[in-house]
Inverse folding.
RNA sequence: GGCCCUGUAGUUCAAUGGAUAGAACGGAAGUUUCCUAAACUUUAAAUAUAGGUUCGAUUCCUAUCGGGGCUACCA
């Protein structure tokens, strides 16, 4: 890459001039800010070098500039502005680069060189509730991060861990037994996950009523919960489940089956898939056995009531429960087993858990427990902790009915895309199936971009009362730019693109070319930071840059054959990078829109 | 109480310790005889407060004031 070259040349120049050999990390080469693009493409920041040069910023920059010029034929000129040495590269350098790459299908993507295996866990739903907006962020992030890691040369295994067992599931089961009248998705016409979710909510409602009754008799919240018939019935059901009591297992399998059908359809509509699905019902026993080992080795301890704990007070954390008094396992127990199984299955070089930041503590504990029971691979676990999706008034609350359902949102996005498209009236010649496909791409593109452009670490706000934009910094803007380029390319009939190295380039052409040039670095950065937002923001910039170029210069009507060809090649190259970049976000591109 | 995250235009988001803090939406004003106007151009508008480190701080440190999360025999 050119930045590395310029860094090297700077180091050499500084050494020759001032006698100090600096490490590359002390050299700052950055893209010249847009105001000074006429003077340079890249800039060296000279302030940190003044201690060595013992000269003024301007003088230092000039000396280095001259030296670099001498040794670097790629550089055409340099200028010095306020302690910044701006280096301008020759147009022929950029043109050669374009010649060599504009036809590449996968520029900047590293599909083959598998150097390590990474297991990425995401989605991880509970089977007692349908998926909502929070899950959408999780799914899109996990899927995109997987793609990005793949594109940076890693072998990725996408896994989903379904929380299919536990007290929460038993609550839905109990509610269905008590008040369900044998209703099924088929009998009610409801999506399976929605139906089961309804019974979970119903349980909650009935439990509240019962508790309220008990409180009237003077019991505290805690006492009421302990005395509640519904709660104790649910707990009994969990024990029965762990004892593999047939009727309980049968009901459990049936209701979970409904939920899986529902989830599958949501995943499909989001365009998400997995390589492997784990079920906690298969891993919790392994978790229990790890706990047993921990007890024997004395790392864990048992309290009088038979519950099992780990003491993490030395690490600044608390005591943490690993097995309940009745012997049933908790979330942590299951996660221990899941981690162990996953290690056994893949021996990966890294485990990434895409899980919300409200579980930061849980993952600190998980890693510590694994480490304490002697799993040295615990340090390979990375919790990709992302922020919550909030509404303008705060957290989504199921109690207040403000939870944004995943299926509803997808449907709404697609129908908005349809409205917008019909209003613009550009696709009157489309077959209805083709049109549907476009609405889907655009609607989902808007949703995915909206979610992924935000830094994963940060909380984000979604306002349901105003729909997600289709103009400006959005997915459809990028899709539109792509379709626009495709339209030009179709008209151009790209048979004989040939251009020479000595074309005069306009500033906008160079900027656009350099932006394309930096795509591989962007992919690398996104992979290092596990951040699709890096890609998203880049794509927006690229699309914007292209649109400006498009308005300033005509392509097909350019009379100079060389320039016309150059601009076509640049357009083709841009469209490839937009397409590939969007693929990393899971966004599909329409050829026309 | 303890621990963790966070505070940038009216709103939603950007900015490896570097130049005059970028965009988008919304507001104001423009551009279609011309390759797709879901576009482009112009314009007003922001780093919570107080210190510190540094040649240089939105970025790092401390304090204060806001916002959120965790601290469950829920997952």
């Amino acid at each position: 890459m050119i930045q590395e070259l310029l860094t090297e040349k700077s180091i050499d120049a500084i050494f020759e001039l001032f006698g100090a050999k600096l490490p590359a990390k002390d050299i700052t080469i950055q893209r010249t800010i847009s105001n000074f693009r006429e003077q340079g493409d890249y800039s060296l920041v000279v302030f940190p070098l003044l201690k060595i040069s013992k000269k003024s910023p301007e003088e230092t920059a000039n000396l280095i500039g001259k030296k670099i010029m001498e040794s670097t034929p790629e550089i055409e000129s340099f200028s010095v502005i306020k302690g910044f040495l701006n280096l301008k590269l020759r147009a022929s350098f950029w043109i050669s680069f374009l010649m060599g790459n504009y036809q590449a299908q996968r520029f900047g993507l590293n599909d083959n060189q598998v150097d390590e295996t990474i297991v990425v866990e995401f989605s991880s739903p509970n089977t007692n509730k349908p998926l909502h907006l929070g899950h959408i962020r999780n799914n899109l992030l996990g899927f995109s991060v997987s793609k990005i890691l793949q594109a940076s040369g890693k072998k990725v295994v996408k896994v989903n861990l379904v929380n299919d067992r536990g007290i929460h599931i038993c609550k839905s089961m109990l509610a269905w037994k008590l008040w369900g009248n044998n209703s099924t998705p088929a009998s009610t016409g409801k999506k399976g996950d929605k139906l089961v979710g309804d019974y979970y909510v119903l349980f909650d409602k009935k439990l509240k009523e019962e508790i309220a009754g008990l409180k009237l008799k003077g019991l505290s919240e805690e006492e009421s919960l302990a005395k509640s018939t519904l709660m104790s019935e649910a707990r009994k059901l969990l024990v029965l489940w762990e004892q593999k009591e047939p009727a309980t297992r049968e009901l459990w399998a049936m209701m979970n089956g409904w939920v899986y059908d529902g989830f599958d359809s949501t995943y499909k509509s989001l365009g998400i898939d997995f390589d492997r699905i784990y079920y906690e019902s298969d891993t919790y026993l392994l978790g229990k056995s790890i706990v047993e080992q921990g007890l024997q080795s004395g790392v864990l301890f048992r309290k009088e009531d038979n519950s099992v704990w780990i003491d993490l007070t030395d690490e600044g954390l608390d005591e943490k429960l690993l097995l309940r008094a009745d012997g049933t396992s908790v979330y942590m127990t299951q996660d221990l087993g899941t981690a162990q199984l996953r290690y056994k299955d893949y021996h990966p070089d890294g485990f990434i858990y895409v899980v919300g930041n409200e579980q930061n503590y849980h993952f600190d504990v998980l890693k510590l427990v694994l480490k304490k029971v002697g799993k040295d691979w615990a340090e390979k676990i990375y919790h990709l902790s992302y922020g919550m999706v909030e509404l303008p008034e705060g957290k989504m609350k199921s109690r207040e009915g403000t939870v944004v359902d995943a299926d509803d949102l997808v449907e709404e996005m697609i129908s908005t895309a349809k409205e917008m498209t019909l209003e613009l009236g550009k696709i009157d010649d489309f077959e209805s199936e083709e049109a549907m496909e476009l609405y889907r791409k655009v609607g989902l593109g808007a949703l995915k971009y909206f979610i992924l452009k935000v830094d994963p670490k940060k909380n984000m706000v979604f306002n349901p009362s105003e729909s997600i934009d289709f103009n400006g910094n959005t997915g459809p803007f990028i899709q539109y730019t792509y379709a626009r380029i495709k339209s030009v390319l179709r008209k151009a009939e790209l048979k004989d693109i040939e251009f020479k190295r000595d074309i005069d380039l306009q500033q906008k052409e160079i900027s656009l070319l350099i932006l394309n040039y930096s795509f591989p670095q962007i992919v690398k950065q996104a992979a290092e930071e596990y951040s699709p937002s890096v890609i998203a923001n880049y794509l927006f910039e690229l699309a914007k840059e292209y649109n400006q170029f498009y308005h300033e210069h005509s392509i097909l009507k350019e009379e100079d054959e060389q320039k016309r060809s150059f601009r076509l090649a640049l357009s083709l190259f841009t469209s490839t990078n937009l397409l590939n970049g969007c693929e990393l976000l899971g966004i599909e591109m329409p050829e026309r829109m």
About this structure: The longest helix of chain A spans residues 192-216.
